[in-house]
Amino acid sequence: MRKLIEYLIKERGMQISIPKEKSEQFRLYRSLVNVRPANEISEEYINSENEFLQSEILRKGITDIADLQPIENNIYLWQGDITTIKCGAIVNAANSGMTGCYVPCHACIDNCIHTFAGVKLRLECAEIMEKQGCEEPTGQAKITSAYNLPCNYVIHTVGPIVNGELTKEHCNLLKSCYISCLELAVQHKIRNIAFCCISTGVFGFPKYEAAEIAVNTVREFLKNNDIQVIFNVFGDEDYEIYKRLLG
Question: Do the bridges between strand 75-79 and strand 153-158 make them parallel or antiparallel, or are there none, so unpaired?
Fold first, then answer.
């Protein structure tokens, strides 16, 4: 990890003392990665980063969907770190810029996914956005490689932002996020997909209403499509909401 930090510090022309504690070193490494623009980087760095991140994910522990039990037909509920789940694709709750969270060590899922996938994920996202020529519309989705994550793909979607009263348009846009991700997965012959709780964090969508939309949309989609869906939650409150809706 120290070599990675030294490279990133030198790249930015900064003078920063590297802490001795491993946890503080990782925090510095993550911060430098989070603020790094989507620029090309040396193969030597990529190789070292791949080795480091894969060992970190192994240390955290990988959960294979094959080891989980469905709570309904083709629907799973799993509480844990989405960057450690081995499945076809995971869903990232992205912002409209689609190149990740640039706030150092922010707790959002966008930041976590980009941190543990590695810098090549931001590079791929930037290439997609450059070709698109505009910000990503709410309710749509894009697919990328997963790089160092144990899943095969990351599907990025921009959920609605709720400031004040929840409206029908907010609900329709959130439903569109789930449909767009599911359709992309089917198009790419992805067998299983793990959804995070889209829009319920800093985007302000009420948790229960968001879960209702997620569950109802997935159930409707599964009537005509053969794909396994994991509802991934991190906090206890979200787990209880989904458990109640799926039970």
Answer: unpaired
Rounded distance between C-alpha atoms, residue 78 and residue 132, angstroms: 34
Instruction: Evaluate if pTM is beyond 0.70.
Output: yes
**Residue 153 pLDDT exceeds 90:** yes
Q: CA 225, CA 12: separation in Å to the nearest integer?
A: 48
Which tens digits make up the pLDDT trace of 29-68? Answer: 999 999 999 999 999 999 999 999 999 999 999 999 999 9
CA-based angle 55:106:16, to the nearest 5? Answer: 75
Instruction: From 217, 161, 166, 162, select the one nearest 193 (Cα to Cα).
Output: 217
- Can you list the alpha helix ranges (DSSP code H) found in the chain? 2-12, 22-35, 43-60, 109-117, 119-132, 168-187, 207-222, 236-246
**Interior CA angle at 149 toward 216 and 245, to 5°?**
20
